[in-house]
Amino acid sequence: QVQLVESGGGLVQPGGSLRLSCAASGSIFRVNDMGWYRQAPGKERELVALITSGGSTNYVDSVKGRFTISRDNAKNTVYLQMNSLKPEDTAVYYCNADTIVINTRTPLPTYRSLEVWGQGTLVTVSS
Q: What phi and psi values does residue 42 have, to the nearest 5 degrees?
């Protein structure tokens, strides 16, 4: 019922920049928190950055000052601007959204919470 489509990954040299985008679509009533996670080979998935519907942000210590998360509520889209990239930033980056979905097929609309994940986009930082 809800899909997250990511874009913007790729290969970049150390010190370079990339911008990830993630757009939510489907039977969305509201999108609450949105975030970016990453998973490097052999490591657990970790939260990189989080943004609330009101715009409050939180970052893992390793990316503070280098990454910026933002969102466009009108487009249900979240972005991750990544600057000063390091080889240790290499990972698959996943978008996550806490949504409220609406079902209008019933006599009265119904609502339910739904956590959604994107398919992942690979970021490789290498010279």
A: 75, 5
Q: Which two tokens stand for residue 75?
A: 């487009």
Query: Which residues does 61 contact at the CB level (< 8 Å), separation at least 6?
Result: none
Torsion (CA) 109, 119, 23, 81 in degrees, nearest 10: 140
Residue 9 C-beta-side C-alpha neighbours within 13 Å? 19
| Per-residue tens of pLDDT for the chain, all 127 residues | 899 999 999 999 999 999 999 999 999 999 999 999 999 999 999 999 999 999 999 999 999 999 999 999 999 999 999 999 999 999 999 999 999 999 988 888 999 999 999 999 999 999 9
